[in-house]
Amino acid sequence: MALAGDSLVVIGENINTTRRIIGTSMNIVEEDGKYGYAYTDLDGTKRVLDITDIFPDDSPNLKSERIGHIGQAVRKQDLDFLRWAIMAQYTAGAHIIDLCVDELSVYPEERHEFMRWTVKTAQQIAPEPSYAIDSTDPETIQAGLEVYDKSLSRPAINSVSLEPGRDAIVDIAREESCILFANGSGVAGMPQSAQERVDNMVGCMEMMDRAGIPMDDRYLDPLVFPVGAGPQYGKDYLDAVKELRQRYPEVHIFGGLSNVSFGMPRRKLLNQAFITLAIINGCDAIMIDPIMNPPVEFIEFKYAAEVMTADDEYGLKYLKYVRGEAKKKKG
To answer: What DSSP character marks residue 56?
Structure first.
């Protein structure tokens, strides 16, 4: 696992233009008729992202409104906000940071330009992590790869699936030597059970086999849906992860684990439980908001759990990790 050694691979999910905050969020501030998203950057400076032009101040029910603050930052090219959002994820432990701009435009050329700008900007802000170019459109992915500086890190692609037209993404990944995410949607749409997730992932594995994608470059995402929308969704995902791990011991398995708590109170608590269960069932990578749920506790859980289950004989990996952390604190 080149990205993270023996540890979990952490994928930061926060630079995605589908992300939103509710209209009554405590982060929203108003002054002299202007609205903004307030945040404190990593050096302690208080800043505001201007959201005046997208804020529905005439809405009768602000609590039901969703404000696309990430999309606003990309659209406005607000470098202060994006620097904070990217660096906060990187310093929290993200090895890969997802970049998605699909929602900003229905026009392909505009979408391609948003992706090019976002990729270049992200790599200038934080050269060290890998970035996942996330789109349903192969041409948008190709646009991002055109400007990706591979001398800094390897790009990832998010994602291939069995949906019509997405198979071209496998060829792009092979030609560009990318890490490749594969998701569990099928020809007929979203999976409705654990078995459908597994079947769809098997289909993606066969596609990647034919293309010769290396096992270590494959990241399988059986898809996480909110438990508030269906009580079985969490269990379906976990059951699929368990079976996929048994079938494919060498590939990476992950998911957008924060999705499970969408619409529920105390999301951090639900996420914490679900991420832990995902690791127990076989996930060796986690796609999360690393600010809401700092990954170090899950990294340490994985090391400790593998000692208890004899997956780490004599605790050699655990001891190496503990000694390394102790050395960091001394240094």
So the answer is: -
Which tokens is 190 given? 């979203």
* Alpha-carbon dihedral angle through residues 96, 54, 258, 29, given to the nearest 10 degrees: 100
Tens digit of pLDDT for each residue in 106-144?
Answer: 999 999 999 999 999 999 999 999 999 999 999 999 999
- Rounded Cα distance, 35 and 17, in Å: 19
The DSSP string of 220-286 is EE-----TTT-TTHHHHHHHHHHHHHHH-TTSEE--BGGGGGTTSSSHHHHHHHHHHHHHHHT-SEE
Q: Find out whether 142 and 133 touch, Cβ atoms under 8 Å.
A: no
- Tokens 């701009």 correspond to 101
Helix, strand, coil share of the chain (percent; to 5): 45, 20, 35
pLDDT in tens, 264-322: 999 999 999 999 999 999 999 999 999 999 999 999 999 999 999 999 999 999 999 99
Angle at 272 between CA 321 and CA 221, to 5 degrees: 85
pLDDT digits (tens, 9 = 90+) for 72-99: 999 999 999 999 999 999 999 999 999 9
Q: List Cα–Cα distances, 182 to 1, 105, 197, 283, in angstroms.
A: 17, 24, 11, 14
pTM score, whole prediction = 0.96
Q: Which domains does the chain have, with CATH numbers?
A: 11-19+69-288 (3.20.20.20), 24-67 (no CATH)
* Rounded distance between C-alpha atoms, residue 167 and residue 177, angstroms: 16
State the residue for tokens 């270590």: 216
Within its chain, how far is the Cα of 214 from the centroid?
21
Cis amide linkage into residue 135, ω under 30° from 0: no
Q: pLDDT class for 176, splitting at 50, 70, 90? A: very high
For the segment 25-35, the average pLDDT, to the nearest whole number, is: 94
Phi and psi at 256, nearest 5°, equal -80, 80
